[in-house]
Design a protein that fits this description.
heterodimer, A: mainly beta, Methylamine Dehydrogenase, Chain H, ten-stranded mixed β-sheet, B: elongated
């Protein structure tokens, strides 16, 4: 019995000890968890992101919607969402991809593509400074580049990239917007053909494209492509200052794996940065070294005068072959599948963010030129010299974090690098490579953005972290939760978290710009007298309904608070009715909307002075209402009308009226 | 001093020419939804500015649509101005004292009649309302201020002479000086 009692008390002690240990470790775990969740908000920072009602934000931020295919516009420092610009995905709210005028914007060589994955916004530059004229953005899935006009905040142009498979390393402008670039993330057979996938190493190729931008109109054309080995070309940035004339692309999968890349593409100690001398390319093109290669791609342009897009079929590209063009391309070995590539404001340092490493590799442009001059080659791959790593290296930011992805600069000699795996941003000194500060992000940061942070003159006041995961940062909304951005003040020695804000889609990359570079150029209305739409009605006297076989064209106007005409009869089942609706208003912020009951289509939102067209094929007889969908005025609810649909064989007379 | 009188008279007559370059009068409406205001400018022969926005807003309460054709004055007023300019120049060249005074008095009469005409238009514009108007406020009239500032419902209306209007005043003032010099 004695023993049993002893055992009992020992057991009791053990249980008590376990419970105590359990409670205390639980307590510690809760504390740690809390610390992770809250982040380091040292003091009240609300006033520093507060923009009073009626006041403007200091910066615009153009944040890609990632897999939403759109581009979101936020104000900084408030983080307020100002507008979502439809780019690569249809948007029934704005009839983008539904109206007859915008459908051609989403045409590709494969047909109409209602969606894409929009990754990297890039503002146009003049002398290496963001100039607020255009914002370019790449479509990743079906390779394309779009240009958004920053006077209207509308997508003005989309060009498809042939010989490419996944346009990720794009658009990344040169310092005077001479070019934006596109690089294939997935190498594909060249030319595209029906071959076994395991012929990858022989039949597949990687293509980098240079898209020339007209300095006046902004219109893009694919000036040339460079044929490269079948690697995955990941990101890019163009040189500036002394390195102006070069564009740098990172690559991974130099192992040329075509299956299970997470293993197969992670074997080589070093992959390559491809340095393209595009000024040299222009010389070779002038010498006729470009091969005319048949290609099949679309070039879609929106005309602001006709308020209409057209899709143009393109059939040819010029391709340069590195073996025929010495000096055009060099490979810079860079450790561990480099992801982002970033050039510092002076143009001297080229940062390769080796995403499977702990270190950041920084190359020197001066060293690179010297290595080229001295022919310091390791080897030559498919006609492309591989420069000796130690000859181009400028320095290494040591053990900065885990999984470096992207770097931006503040214009005060500091670099800021995002680390995905360790979920943090590390600030380091350009030139000495010492780590100055680090701050956690919540959670798993991808890109980061400082306004002008990839230009010659960053406006280094704020930094935005774009996170891939939010988990518990916001009120839960079921299995799918928001993604987010975080705003930091970077004016002091320490980076300081100011604000979290949710974003649309996946905030992939962003560009920021001083609001004053855009505000004064922003259009308020379209001038009615400049409207060249073929179906415009510039006054109520000009409205009419015209039948052409089974096509019926309704020339309609809208003004506070009625449509003209608002009674339409003589439409028949099976007709194709085109409502060409002109907004006669010439006042700021008076759009009108239009929709018809059961018309199997999206509403149109017509801006003052604009004409938009939406179609309807009525399938049953009856009288159907239409109305203004955008609350426009005191008599908005009265802004309505009826359209009568008769049987296909009826003799109902075509007529239209207002106020009769 | 007297030798300048004739020159001043000619300058006074020419000053009226500014009426063809600058508006005589300006009416501005300010409201929460129009924080920077919308304005119409009345010239001797035209009306410009945000006329369509004035009309769109005012049609809710049944005010008449402002059109250039709706003002017969705009058709003939310019000829009166031209006639007065020619007359003034001729008087200046002839240089007779009594003519100077006649021109000044004529100008004052024409100006007063013009202002009265403007007031009558404002009165009618504010009081003649379409019985089918969507919004009817019992006992409410919408007459803009003759000169000055006036609150009308949620709007603040401003009505002031513009540079062309001041030019008429300057012209009369100069002609008066010329006549005074002549009379000394």
């Amino acid at each position: 019995m004695k023993y049993i009692n002893k055992i009992k008390s020992v057991l009791t002690l053990i249980v008590i000890a376990l419970i105590v240990a359990g409670i205390s470790s639980c307590g510690q775990q809760a504390k740690d968890s809390d610390a992770f969740r809250k982040g380091a908000l040292s003091s009240d920072v609300a006033s520093r992101v507060y923009v009073a009602p009626g006041e403007y934000d200091e910066f615009y931020a153009f944040v890609s919607g990632g897999f939403s295919g759109q581009l979101a516009v936020y104000g900084l420092p408030s983080g307020r969402l100002l507008r979502v610009i439809p780019v690569f995905s249809v948007d029934p709210e704005k009839a983008y991809g539904f109206s007859e005028e915008t459908k051609p914007m989403l045409e590709t060589s494969f047909g109409f593509q209602p969606w894409d994955d929009a990754h990297h916004p890039e503002l146009s530059q003049t002398d290496g400074n963001t100039d607020g004229r255009w914002c370019f953005i790449n479509g990743n899935n079906t390779p394309r580049v779009a240009r958004i006009d920053l006077t209207t905040f509308e997508t003005a142009e989309i060009i498809e990239i042939p010989n490419s498979g996944g346009n990720h390393s794009s658009p990344f402008t040169t310092e005077n917007t001479e070019y934006v670039v596109a690089g294939t993330r997935f190498s594909v057979p060249y030319p595209q053909q029906d071959v076994a996938i395991n012929t990858y190493a022989d039949k597949f190729k990687g293509m980098l494209s240079f898209i020339k931008v007209n300095p006046e109109s902004g219109l893009m054309n694919i000036e040339f492509q460079v044929l490269l080995p079948a690697f995955d070309y990941d990101l890019a940035h163009s040189g500036k200052g002394k390195s102006h004339g070069w564009t740098f692309f990172t690559s991974y999968n130099t192992e040329k794996a075509s299956t299970l890349l997470e293993v197969g593409a992670s074997q080589n100690d070093k992959d390559f940065i491809a340095a393209i001398n595009w000024k040299k390319a222009e010389e070779y093109l002038a010498q006729g070294k470009g091969h005319d290669v048949p290609a099949n791609y679309k070039h879609n342009v929106y005309d602001e005068a006709t308020h209409m897009a057209t899709s143009n079929q393109m059939n040819m590209v010029k391709v340069l072959l590195p073996e025929e063009c010495p000096g055009l391309v060099y490979f810079l070995p860079t450790p561990k599948s480099p992801h982002g590539i970033d050039v510092d404001p002076t143009g001297e340092y080229i940062v390769g963010n080796g995403k499977l490493s702990a270190d950041l590799t920084v190359h020197s442009f001066t060293n690179m030129i010297a290595a080229i001059d001295n022919k310091e080659y390791d080897t030559i791959i498919e006609g492309i010299p591989v420069l000796k790593f130690e000859k181009v290296l400028a320095g290494t930011v040591k053990a900065a974090g885990l999984g470096p992805l992207h770097t931006e600069f503040d214009g005060r000699g500091n670099g800021y690098t995002s680390f995905f795996i360790s979920s943090e941003i590390v600030k380091w000194k350009v030139g000495t490579w010492e780590v100055l500060d680090r701050v956690s992000t919540y959670y798993s940061i991808g890109h980061l953005m400082i306004p002008g942070g990839d230009s010659k003159n960053p406006q280094g006041k704020y930094m935005v972290a774009m996170n891939k995961i939010t988990k518990d940062r916001y009120l839960p909304t079921g299995p799918e939760v928001t993604q987010s951005a975080q705003l930091f003040d970077i004016t002091g020695d320490k980076m300081e978290l100011l604000l979290d804000f949710p974003t649309i889609g996946e905030p992939h990359y962003a560009q920021g710009i001083s609001a004053d570079r855009i505000v004064s150029k922003s259009k308020k209305i379209y001038k009615l007298e400049e409207n060249e739409h073929p179906y415009v009605a510039k006054s109520e006297d000009a409205t009419k309904v015209v039948r052409d076989g089974k096509d019926v064209h309704v020339y309609m106007t809208m003004i506070r608070s009625h449509f003209s005409p608002d009674n339409i009869e003589g439409i028949k089942v099976g007709d194709k009715v085109y409502f060409h609706v002109t907004n006669l208003e010439q006042d700021y912020d008076v759009p009108h909307g239009f929709s018809v009951m059961g018309f199997e289509n999206a509403e149109i939102l017509v801006m003052p002075g604009q004409t938009e067209t939406i179609t309807w094929i009525p399938s049953r007889i009856g009288v159907y209402p239409f109305y203004c969908t955008d609350f426009c005025s005191a008599l908005h609810q009265e802004m309505q009308g009826y359209v009568r649909v008769s049987a296909a064989n009826s003799t109902t007379e075509l007529k239209w009226s207002l106020g009769e | 001093m007297k030798k300048y009188a004739r020159a001043i008279m000619v300058i006074a007559a020419l000053t009226l020419g500014l009426l063809f370059v600058f508006p005589m009068w300006k009416i501005t409406l300010l409201a929460p939804q129009y924080p920077t205001g919308i304005s119409i400018e009345i010239y001797v022969n035209n009306i410009t500015g945000d006329i369509s926005n004035f009309n769109i807003m005012n049609h809710y309460v049944g005010m008449k649509t402002i059109t250039v054709k709706g003002f017969p004055e705009l058709a003939y007023m310019q000829y009166i101005v031209l006639a007065m300019m020619v007359l003034g120049i001729v008087i200046g060249l002839i240089g007779k004292k009594s003519h100077f005074w006649i021109w000044v008095v004529l100008m004052i009469v024409i100006g007063t009649v013009g202002l009265y005409d403007f007031y009558i238009w404002e009165y009618n514009y504010g009081h003649t309302l379409d019985p089918l108007a969507a919004i009817k406020v019992p006992g409410m009239a919408y007459q803009p201020p003759f000169i000055g500032r006036k609150e009308i419902l949620n709007f603040i209306a401003y009505s002031f002479p513009a540079f062309g209007g001041y030019a008429v005043g300057i012209s009369i003032f100069l002609a008066g000086i010329a006549a005074l010099i002549k009379s000394k």
